[in-house]
């Protein structure tokens, strides 16, 4: 049997393990059930991949994330290791062949989704395989209090019946104590070895900056912390817009979101990974499974939806253990936006029953039928047909997907796509002689930045609403522009695909999962409120707040977060006095904005703003109508 370190050197070109990796690997190799909690960047995959390579046979890996499965399979294949992922969209015959290959073809890894595991043919073939290990990735999904509970994960324990002598390793990056307990029980662990790395990342400074001008403050932070960066935003449109704004200011940037063609995604990822581009502006679709050690800064322009997701995204900074920064930019409107997006749009059980019933009607599925049927699906048409609210309906469909009633996949190859293929000047010259297209064309240009440089997926409903033109009229105009050589236009009347996983039983279908849905929604409320508490709590060290959330107790301040760096009057009277004197001297000749003071004075922004607040409270300075600060002549006489 080869030694684990030999495998590490041979395939990963490393000569030593990260903390806990060797202990976890040895636990697996001695056939113990093992639970591994390693924070983002801790190297979880090696903990099951190396033991699987040491032992004879095939390792079955259960994962809920198709993208992550594909990334890991590609990485293993590039190392010369035989691995496959069985995902959706393959025929029964192809599935039959792939499973035979796992039995007879010397494959080392088979990646499956928990839903795929429920198929009878899959279970039958797993019984015939020489399985050396079962790995459950993202294991927190098995707990109803996990960040992304998936009921299908509850059925993973069937592997223990199919392969009763094979041990299991469960892995996750974010799990509270209650989630760990539930996971161990659900997987039927016996005397498990539990390894929990600390959630402390001592090299990361967690900072929350209250900003009234996020673009300006974003620019300042990028200038201050030069190096590889990730900027997380909430929408695809914003990722494109911020990329263009930063590019015009001379920053080296690219952008990434789920709707970009696969070829472009890979190109942009390569540019960023190899430091041809410093900054990646991205939605949360970016980052899973990507290990770039030298990320200096991760900046959230919008509030994350949970502490779990924030910790994972922030944890992509500083994996080389050098000083790094995780920054949240927030303002007064963020709380309302976050609640509107994730709390106020949560559907009631009656909403869910109605949407499910109408979805079945939309595809004319008879009662008791429809199981495993696939349908191309236009979300906008569906909402319009039944006068449904888009946000609430989307959340409902996600709930139905998560609870294995349907599978909703956004097939971006079905998207309506558009790109202007002529220059800006040529396009406006064309409009001079085709003025009837003015409103539609200008609406598209103002809605989709980068449409001259890239083929973008466009939302015809959105363009219709903004231009007050019908979708039919817009399609006609775009077809004409295509004929005239002004645009490349690819029209599709569907943007998604729906697979019904259960036969239609209307309310009975939803009643079976009602308790689970209510618990999921309670968890979502808790998560959103925890994020708001984190960004608004300026009394407790940010690192301590994060550790406390995950059940880890410490009283030691990190010394580098915004709370720790804020000047305390009782602890630093001399520093305060210096800042106060510098501010009063600076505005003695003319009023200044806080931005001008931050740029002109040799102190930290948070300290200047705190002192300014104190000076205002004591009437030593006053605000002008143009939002600048000036001396209060009466008080300073």
Task: Kindly describe this structure.
This protein has 27 helices and 21 strands. With 637 residues, it is α/β, with parallel strands linked by helices. It folds into five domains: 193 residues, Rossmann fold (3-Layer(aba) Sandwich), CATH 3.40.50.300; 128 residues, P-loop containing nucleotide triphosphate hydrolases (Rossmann fold), CATH 3.40.50; 90 residues, Orthogonal Bundle (Arc Repressor Mutant, subunit A); 75 residues; 66 residues, Orthogonal Bundle (Arc Repressor Mutant, subunit A), CATH 1.10.10.10. The strands form five sheets. A seven-stranded parallel β-sheet has the order 3-4-2-5-6-1-7, with helices on both faces. It has a six-stranded parallel β-sheet with strand order 8-13-12-9-11-10, sandwiched between helices. Strand 20 and strand 21 form a beta hairpin.
């Amino acid at each position: 049997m080869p030694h684990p370190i030999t495998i590490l050197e041979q395939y990963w070109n490393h000569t030593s393990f990260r903390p806990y990796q060797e202990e976890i690997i040895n636990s697996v190799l001695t056939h113990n059930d093992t639970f591994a909690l390693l924070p983002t960047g801790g190297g979880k995959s090696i903990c099951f991949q190396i033991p699987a390579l040491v032992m004879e046979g095939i390792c079955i890996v259960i994962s809920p994330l198709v993208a992550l499965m594909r990334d890991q399979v590609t990485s293993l294949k590039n190392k010369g290791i035989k691995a496959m992922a069985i995902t959706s969209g393959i025929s029964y015959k192809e599935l039959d062949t792939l499973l035979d290959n796992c039995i007879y073809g010397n494959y080392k890894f088979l990646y499956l989704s928990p839903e795929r595991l429920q198929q009878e043919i899959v279970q039958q073939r797993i019984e015939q395989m020489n399985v050396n290990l079962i790995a459950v990735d993202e294991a927190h999904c098995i707990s109803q209090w996990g960040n992304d509970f998936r009921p299908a994960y509850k059925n993973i324990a069937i592997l223990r019946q199919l392969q009763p002598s094979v041990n299991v390793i469960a892995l996750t990056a974010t799990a509270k104590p209650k989630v760990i307990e539930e996971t161990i029980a659900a997987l039927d662990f016996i005397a498990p070895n539990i390894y929990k790395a600390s959630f402390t990342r001592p090299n990361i400074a967690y900072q929350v900056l209250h900003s009234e001008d996020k673009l300006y403050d974003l620019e300042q932070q990028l200038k201050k912390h030069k190096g590889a960066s990730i900027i997380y935003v909430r929408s695809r449109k914003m990722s494109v817009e911020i990329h263009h704004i930063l590019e015009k200011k001379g920053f080296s940037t690219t952008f990434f979101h789920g709707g970009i063609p696969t070829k472009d995604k890979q190109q942009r990822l390569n540019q960023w990974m190899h430091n041809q581009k410093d900054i990646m502006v991205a939605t949360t679709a970016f980052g899973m499974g990507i290990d770039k050690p030298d990320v200096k800064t991760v900046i959230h322009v919008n509030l994350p939806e949970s502490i779990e997701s924030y910790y994972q995204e922030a944890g992509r900074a500083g994996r080389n253990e050098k000083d790094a920064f995780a920054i949240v930019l927030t303002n007064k409107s963020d709380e309302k936006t976050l609640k509107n997006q994730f709390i106020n749009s949560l559907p009631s059980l009656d909403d869910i029953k109605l949407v499910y019933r109408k979805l079945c009607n939309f595809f004319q599925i008879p009662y008791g039928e429809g199981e495993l049927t696939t349908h191309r699906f236009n979300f906008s048409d569906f909402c319009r047909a039944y006068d449904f609210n888009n946000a609430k309906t989307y959340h409902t469909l996600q709930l139905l997907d998560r609870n294995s009633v349907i599978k909703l996949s956004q097939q971006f190859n079905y998207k309506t796509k558009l790109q202007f293929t002529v220059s800006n000047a040529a396009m406006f010259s064309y409009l001079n002689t085709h003025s009837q297209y003015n409103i539609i064309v200008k609406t598209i240009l103002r809605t989709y930045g980068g449409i001259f440089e890239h083929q973008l997926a466009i939302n015809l409903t959105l363009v219709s609403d903004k231009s007050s033109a019908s979708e039919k009229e817009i399609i006609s105009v775009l077809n004409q522009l295509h004929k005239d050589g002004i645009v490349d236009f690819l029209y599709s009347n569907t943007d998604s695909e729906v697979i019904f996983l259960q036969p239609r039983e209307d309310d009975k279908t939803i009643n079976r999962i009602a308790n689970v849905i209510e618990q999921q929604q309670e968890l979502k409320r808790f998560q959103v409120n925890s994020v708001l508490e984190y960004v608004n709590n300026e009394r407790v060290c940010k690192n301590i707040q994060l550790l406390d959330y995950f059940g880890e107790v410490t009283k030691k301040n990190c010394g580098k977060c915004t709370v720790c760096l804020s000047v305390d009057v009782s602890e630093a009277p001399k520093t305060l006095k210096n800042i106060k004197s510098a501010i009063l001297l600076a505005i003695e000749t003319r009023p200044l904005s806080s931005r001008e003071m931050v740029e002109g004075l040799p102190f930290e922004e948070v300290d200047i703003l705190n002192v300014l607040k104190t000076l205002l409270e004591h009437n030593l300075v006053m605000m002008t109508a143009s939002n600048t600060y000036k001396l209060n002549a009466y008080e300073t006489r």
